[in-house]
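In the current project phase, work has continued on tokenised descriptions of protein folds. One protein thus recorded appears below exactly as we store it.

——
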Amino acid sequence: MWLKTITKTAALAAFAITGSANMAFADEKPEYALVIHGGAGTITPDKLTPELDKEIRGTLLKALSTGQDILAAGGTSLDAITATIQVMENSPHFNAGKGAVFTAEGKNELDSSIMDGATLNAGAVSGVSNVKNPITLARAVMEKSVHVMLQGNGAEQFADEQGIERAEDAYFYTEYRWGQLQDAKAKQQGPLLDHDGKEHSSVQDKTGGDYKFGTVGAVALDKHGNLAAGTSTGGMTNKSHGRVGDSPIIGAGTYANNKSCAVSATGHGEFFIRATVAHSICALMEYGGLSLEEASNRIVMEQLVEMGGDGGIIAVDKDGNMVMPFNTAGMFRGKVSSNIEADVSIYKD
């Protein structure tokens, strides 16, 4: 009995020491961190078949793995988020690149932006067609032009000058997105106005918020201590000609600053523009002294909700803390760092 008691006591002591060590390791600042999203909205288990759920999670894990490989090898946060977003742009499961939603005119118009937290340089494109990976074009605008944003035909001409890969209309087409457009038209449901002519959020939208499913984004902290953020989208289903959402707008859908954090947003863009969501979170940290979690919740769970705007954000701060708050039923999301294994989620689980 005495021997058993000693053995049990030693075992508990060893467990306590090991547990404390693991907790300390988890609390250490990671060498690198990566967070991604694939859109927020009324994403509930009944909306996805088990097969589709599995495919989407697999794509999110592939995107995380792609970025993690770059970061673990000492690559830059800009390279990591560019490659990560490309994986999601190339998947028909998201509203970005291949599988982008259709405008009211039956076209694909793509928006994207990227920002370097070390220099505050940024690049964005809006309303471009036939660009396979809009995030690469946004980065080219940042690094190879004197401008921050290019749009439409001018952005496409710049893409050709820079040798950015193009794709035919058929590449972007999916039956699912085309069906969404037909449903929206059949319901005579405009993207921004309800039958009373008032602005609405997807909570009031008869399409169930599907018009905003799938905007993709990534934020990262690299081993050099630099932050970066990027976002890419096809916008709203049945959107009016020339409509621009928050994704290509620096400060609204994308922002990064080494002094605070990097943010990428997804949701009802009109509200995110008016609340300058991405920059506001970083500003609350830099000037207000709030933590990343406090600042993010202040904007996403309080201000946006009060305004009637739905969606979510992903963010990582200069210390490697990561958050993924959203005020909708679900958000495709995932995170990984040097301290934690890759993890992806869809619903509020």
Q: What stands out?
A: Residues 1-25, 190-211 have pLDDT under 50 and may be disordered. Residues 1-30 form one domain.
